[in-house]
Design goal:
Blueprint (H helix, E strand, L loop, with lengths): L1 H41 L1 H12 L8 E11 L2 E2 L4 E2 L9 E12 L4 E8 L8 E8 L1 H5 L1
Length: about 140
């Protein structure tokens, strides 16, 4: 009787130990999605401002928004003079380049990629470049 109880206890413990692992895996996906939504919410005024300038209109409509690429870069230093080269961020500091993909933008429902950087002293994101992909060219 004791052996059966020990085996049952071991099985029960292994099941209980595996449950947090499963929930952590699913929570990491949820957390990643929440972080993306939070960053997109912070960048909303940058995104709409960029689209207003690109389409030269006061109102913009967007079907979907996602961060398709994130590059984390480090400021280069000139080792002989101990100063940064070609960027405004602090020497040795990190900055990010984001690619934000938008779908169904404007009256022609184009897909747009916006490229942002935050290598300034205030670490504010600004539009570096953009690419408009006509909706008709996607199907071909």
């Amino acid at each position: 009787m004791k052996i059966k109880q020990c085996v049952l206890l071991v099985i029960l413990m292994s099941v209980l130990c595996s449950i947090p692992t499963l929930s952590l895996a699913s929570n990491s996906e949820v957390r990643e999605k929440q972080l993306e939504e939070a960053l997109l919410q912070q960048l909303h005024s940058n995104i709409t401002g960029a689209l207003k300038r690109i389409y030269k209109t006061e109102y913009v409509m967007v079907g979907c928004t996602e961060i398709s690429n994130i590059h984390q870069l480090e400021v280069m230093r000139d080792q002989s003079e101990k100063r940064s080269i070609n960027v405004d961020a602090m020497s040795g500091g990190k900055y990010f380049e984001l690619t934000i993909r938008l779908c169904s933008v404007g009256p022609k429902e184009d897909n747009v990629e916006l490229y942002f950087k935050n290598d300034t002293a205030g670490a504010n994101y600004y539009l570096v470049d953009y690419k408009i992909i006509a909706a008709k060219s996607i199907g071909n």
